[in-house]
Structure to design on (208 residues):
């Protein structure tokens, strides 16, 4: 995302990820002495801000498809750096600048720039850079573009894609070009992917 802005700024851009964890103290056990004791409960993930419906998931998957991180739906897509290489740890945004035709530190299923990730992670109190956190951050960006209600309608319209083209350079504007002058996926191709994916997700939901 925002590759043109990064090119103008050089290699110094950075994005975002902030973690959070909960630690709870237990009451003294009856079997212990009068001295108090406590133990730490494993960290718990915060409750997701955004529900994941078939319609929202289909849009997220379509963005991944456009960004080149779909990987046939594999979780490996959440580990993709700009240029296609993969990183290992999902503890935080890798913040690694890759020079390959362009220079970018974009990473993850939605190719978050470090600064974009940092903002979303802070607002949502995301604990890591894992798949669930990345999905929540992407929905946050969609919401910030005032496109979430339209996304819930279950139609990938040209207007919806155009709203999101300012966030993801691979999505076409109404003029069928990139908001940032980068290559884009054709709208018809995106609509076809979206509709097939949504149909499958709805089928899975009805079975489950």
């Amino acid at each position: 995302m925002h590759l043109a802005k990064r090119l103008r700024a050089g290699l110094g851009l950075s994005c975002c990820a902030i973690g959070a964890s909960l630690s709870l103290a237990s009451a003294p056990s009856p079997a212990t002495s009068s001295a108090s004791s406590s133990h730490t409960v494993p960290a718990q993930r915060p409750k997701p801000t955004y529900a994941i419906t078939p319609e929202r998931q289909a849009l997220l998957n379509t963005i991944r498809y456009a960004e080149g991180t779909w990987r046939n739906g594999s979780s490996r897509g959440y580990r993709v750096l700009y240029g296609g290489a993969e990183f290992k740890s999902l503890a935080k945004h890798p913040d690694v600048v890759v020079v390959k035709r362009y220079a970018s530190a974009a990473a993850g299923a939605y190719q978050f720039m470090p600064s974009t990730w940092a903002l979303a992670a802070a607002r949502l109190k995301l604990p890591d850079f894992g798949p669930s956190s990345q999905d929540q951050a992407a929905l946050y960006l969609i919401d910030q573009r005032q496109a979430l209600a339209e996304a819930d309608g279950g139609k990938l319209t040209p207007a919806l894609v155009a709203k999101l083209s300012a966030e993801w350079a691979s999505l076409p504007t109404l003029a069928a070009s990139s908001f940032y002058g980068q290559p884009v996926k054709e709208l018809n191709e995106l609509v076809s992917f979206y509709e097939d994916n949504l149909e499958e997700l709805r089928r899975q939901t009805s079975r489950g």
